[in-house]
Each structure stands twice: as C-alpha cells, then as structure tokens.
Recover the amino acids of this structure.
C-alpha cells in the first residue's frame, strides 16, 4: 500500500459524510491519523464507540491542532462561526476544506477567517442517503460519485482567489494542495471535478436544491390532505410518491441551510419550474394530448443519459427487494 | 398445486403489465391457458418469441373467444373503442377487467359496452417500472404491491353498479366473480383492496399522478436550461434529480392518457401543491428558517411509515450498486 496522502486529518461534525469519509480513508489507507469531533456529546460518544476515527476529541480547536487537512462537515449555516473559532489554530501550510452543499455562502463565511498560509479549498461530494447522524456512514458512499472542488474563477488568477481566502497566493503551492486533496477524494472512490463557486451553486440548484424543495412540498401536500388518509398515501406510494419521500427525508437542518444560503439560484430555478408546470396544467385542462406526449417523450432521453453515465441502475425498482433485471 | 383459478385468460395489449401478469400466472399455475394479443405486429412477434403466453393471436376478438377472464392492458384512452369491439363477443358469465391507472374514465368508457351477463370489475395494480413494452415484464412485479379492484360505491348496491356496467345485478354471482379475481391477484403476489372509482382517482392523483407531472416538469426544466449543460445535469444527478428522472421516464402515451382522463383530481392536487410551494418559496425569500425546518421535519415521518409498511427499503441508494446497508 502506498503511504498515506495526509498525516493527520481532522473531521469536524460527525454525520453521514464525515463518518463515511473516515471509513473510506481507512479502507484506502489514505490518512496517517483521523481525529474527529462534534459539538454534541452524544454524537462523540457514538462515534467513539463505533471507532471509525483514531481519536475523538471534545473541541474543534483540539481537533485541528497539527492537522494537515481539516474538513468542516457541519451545516452550512454553522461554518462561519466554526471557522472564526479554529482559524488562528490552523497549521501553516495545511489545507482547510468542507463538504457543504452550497459553495458561494461558504466561501463568504469561511474565507475571511482563513490565515494567508493555509490553503482553503471548498469541496462538495455529490452523494448522500436519506440517513443522517454518526451511525449512518459507510465506506462506499463516494464510490463512482462526483466530488466538486472549488477553485477561483478562470482568469481571476491566484491573487484574486487569495482575496476570497481561496489559495495562499503562491500558485505552485496552491496547485500542489489541490492535487493532494483531489488524490484523497479519488482514493475514497470519487471522481473529481473543479469549478468556481457560482457555477457550482447554479448547477446544484438544478440537480439538487430545486428537486429537494419540490419533493418536500409534494410530501407536505399529501400529509395535509385530510380527504386522503395517511395509510392510503403510504400503501399506494409505490406509484411514484415513494421516490419523493426518500428525497424529502433528508436532514432538515442541512436543507434549511442549503435553501437559505443558495437563495437566488434556487428561487430562479423554482420560478422556471412553476412557469413550466403552469404550461403543462393548461395542456391538461385544455386536453392538449400532443403537447403532453411530446414533453414526456423528451424527458425520457435524459434518463437514458444518466444510466449510460453510470449514475443509476435501470433495474426495476432500483433493485429493490421485489424486482429483478428485465430480460 | 391447486387447480387454476381461471380456465382461459385473455390479455389484450402486451406491455409491462400484461407480460408481467403472464409470467406471474405461469409462476403460480393460476390459469389453464393464457392468450395474448396486441394491435402492433412487432409486439406480437416479440411476445411469441419470448413465449410467456400459451398463444398469441392477431385480434382482440379472437383473444376473447371463450375466455373466462379478459384483461384490457392498453392505454386508458384506447379502452372505449376496444370494449365496443369485443363487447358482443365476451362469453356469458365471464369477467372483464383492466389495469388502467385511472378508473372513473374507464368505467364511463367501457361500462356501456359490457353485456348484462358479464362481470365488469376494473382493476389497477399499483406497480410499475420505468420500462415499457413486451420485453419489460417479470413475474415478481406485483409481489407485495397493492392491486385495487373497483366496486360500486357503498350503499349504491348491486343495481346501481349494474347501471354503470359494474356487476350483473346478481349480487351472489358478482361477489363470486370478485372473489375469483381477488384470488388471481393474490396468487400473482399482490395485496388486494376494493374501493370505488372516485376514491381511487383522488388517492392516485396524490400518490401517483401529481408526482409524475411534477417530475416530468422538473426534468423538462433541467433540459431547457441552456446555462447548465446536459452533461452537468447527468453527472451530478445523484444529488436528488436522478430519482425524478426515473419517474419521468415512464411511458409517454400511458401518462398522456392518465392526465387527460383524471383531469379534475390531478389539477386540484396540483393547485394545492403550487400553493404550498409558493409558501415555501416565500419562506426562503424571507429567510424564515424555522418554517423550513418545521416543514422538513414533518415530511420525514411519512417516509418512515412507507418503510415500515414494506413499500420501500431504507438501504442507501435503494441498494444501488455502490451502497450497502448502514451499520
């Protein structure tokens, strides 16, 4: 086995992503030592019991001491205060990263607290399940999923990046730090891509943030309707609703922060969505079958692209218990 | 093995549901003989080659000759004309059923063509995949899924039912016919429930029709946005969008007919959905985190109910390739 990519890695906030990272780093022998912490005592206790970190400490300051890589794995809304707390204690030459689902707000909140001699490379592993908390991790979570690392906008150069706290202003050292973090994520099974924070937030508004809000809404509507009972909704959920509930079961705190901190892009996509939904509603009301058929035919093609790209299986029911591959 | 439930069963329209029914009936030894037909020659050819029916014939009239059970497995919009064609050829005392996703429109379109001595019991197996066509069936499709059989409204009695073409007016014979069809679906692995057509259409508007339209819309929006490329949408789909694309890949003709024939209930639920979505959008715009957090916490509970009811798995990624059960 090759030597570890980092000597000491500190994970702050021990939920689904951090516990999966710890297990994936162990699987790949990627870190000399993984230290974890969480502000909730019960979470620290569970993580210590499960043993996926080499050490669990009580405070973030203790965790970052001497760490070559620090990863913030807390909700986006909590990152600014956390960065202010640990900033002065980060090791010179080390790398600070995070796993938040929104990147512009993280750069704004964390960037000002990053010392000039620390490499700040925000990240976002595009992977998750409906589960959260210190027991929910598994080593395979990132396998064949994408991890996006945030770099300064093309053309703005290392110095502009340094103004935002992104990079140290030394381009060679910044490039080396990026290559090292990329190697870590690849070692954990992910495919890595770089982009700037604005683009990230727009793309994710389309592929994640708007779909989540829509799923939350639909599940809330079903729950509100007094004329259709909960047990009917649950029994007949296999007809489509079920897949919405999985999306709408994700961690409430994380998602509150996502919407509040990617407000503009999310609202813009939702505006486009509403416009389109109204057009389809009108087609239904007017009995315009040709419009509906054309629309539904077009959406099928995108699905084929996702399966071809290895981002889903086309097994019936996603391979749920009662299905098997079609002949 | 017990004797077959029906002597001869005719399946008209050989897509996902009919091919799965043929395989499930064969698995359970539920029919003496299964005859299939489809108006498309290529579909008949494929079905004959795969051999899941005992016989493939060219016309619906040929298929229903002497059949003890006839099941219409064509899009809802095609059922009226089909019923007019085969009605006079149905065997006295036999049962006519269907598998359409909408029931009020089927009762209206088919009912008038059902002879008085034939039992008309509309049905809807709440199960499906994103695949369609004569190659897509598998015997396990209905295992542990619900099948809804439509009976006249409570209190309206057998005679009112007979007016709608539901039942022959002979209550004992109608009860026996219903029990027999129920036994067939149970033999194919399903749980069976009865309800009237209006209730069916309202419940399914919530659990299936509105979610499908919403998923189609979201996928269409992503496809329309020129600023986010198709390849970005596809790569990062695992973040939520992916599950929408599965729903939005279902058969376009079937879904066009569903929306056109369950117009009122679908539009009503979509109206409620839009209202709720606007409230959440306003909460985002105003930065009302408490409202969002409360809402997202509530929707989590419904998910738990679905897993407890055995209608889904809580394995990460639904057990997709890269996931395993959490510890």
């Amino acid at each position: 086995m090759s030597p570890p990519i980092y000597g000491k890695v500190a994970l702050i906030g021990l939920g689904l992503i951090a516990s999966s990272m710890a297990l994936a780093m162990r699987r790949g022998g990627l870190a000399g030592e993984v230290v974890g912490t969480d502000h909730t005592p019960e979470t620290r206790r569970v993580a210590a019991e499960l043993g996926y970190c080499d050490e669990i400490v009580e405070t973030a300051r203790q965790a970052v001491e001497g760490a070559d890589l620090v990863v913030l794995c807390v909700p986006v809304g909590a990152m600014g205060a956390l960065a202010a707390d640990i900033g002065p204690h980060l090791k010179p030459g080390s790398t600070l990263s995070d796993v938040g689902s929104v990147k512009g707000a993280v750069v704004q909140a964390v960037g000002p607290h990053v010392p000039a001699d620390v490499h700040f490379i925000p990240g976002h592993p595009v992977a998750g399940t409906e589960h959260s908390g210190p027991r929910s991790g598994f080593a395979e979570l990132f396998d064949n999923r994408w991890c996006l690392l945030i770099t300064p906008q093309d053309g703005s150069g290392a110095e502009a990046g340094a103004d935002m706290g992104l990079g140290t202003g030394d381009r060679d050292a910044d490039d080396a730090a990026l290559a090292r973090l990329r190697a870590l994520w690849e070692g954990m099974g992910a495919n890595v891509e770089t982009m700037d924070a604005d683009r990230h937030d727009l793309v994710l508004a389309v592929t994640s943030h708007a779909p989540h809000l829509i799923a939350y809404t639909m599940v809330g509507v079903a729950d509100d309707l007094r004329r259709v009972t909960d047990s009917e909704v649950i029994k007949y959920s296999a007809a489509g609703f079920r897949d919405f509930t999985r999306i709408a079961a994700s961690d409430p705190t994380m998602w509150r922060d996502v919407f509040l901190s990617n407000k503009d892009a999310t609202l813009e996509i939702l505006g486009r969505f509403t416009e389109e939904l109204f057009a389809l509603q009108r087609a239904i009301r007017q009995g315009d079958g040709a419009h509906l058929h054309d629309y539904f035919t077009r959406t099928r093609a995108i699905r084929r692209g996702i399966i071809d790209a290895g981002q889903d299986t086309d097994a019936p029911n996603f391979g749920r218990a009662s299905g098997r591959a079609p002949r």
User: Anything to note?
Assistant: The longest strand of chain B covers residues 6-12. The first helix of chain B runs from residue 16 to 28. The domain at 6-195 of chain B is CATH 3.40.50.720 (Rossmann fold).
